[in-house]
Amino acid sequence: MSTTYTGVTPEQFQDFTTLKVEGPFQMLNLLKFKDKVEETGTSGAEGYAQYLQAAMPFFQNSGANIVYHGKPLMGIIGPSDHLEWDKILIVEYAAKEDFLNMITADGYPGDLRSRALEDSRLILCTSK
Description:
CATH class: Alpha Beta
CATH architecture: 2-Layer Sandwich
Number of helices: 4
Strand order of the largest sheet: 2-3-1-4
Oligomer: single chain
Distance between the termini: 36 Å
Helix content: 25-40%
Radius of gyration: 15 Å
Order of helices and strands: HEHEEHHE
CATH topology: Alpha-Beta Plaits
């Protein structure tokens, strides 16, 4: 069985906090949902929708902008027999501090995100 990832490790968090990121950046989220969230009995897709609804005030307070939220349909380059990810989400932040303040704010529902996911990637992107 391959390794799956649903949350940031302390080492990754430390690396991100010390990384020099100036100006706006995007976070590319690749999301694979659980078939069933044990704690709630809902699907992972339903659980992630609950996370987005609960996280929306935090996104708004941080000035985050959801640039894209959609479902991949097929691979054009690479294996076309299956797609690994159920959803792709791209969120833009004006500054690294906005993102850090958001994910460390009291009440931020990161547990809902992790609970809904079988696997994920969160990739920092910049246009520089």
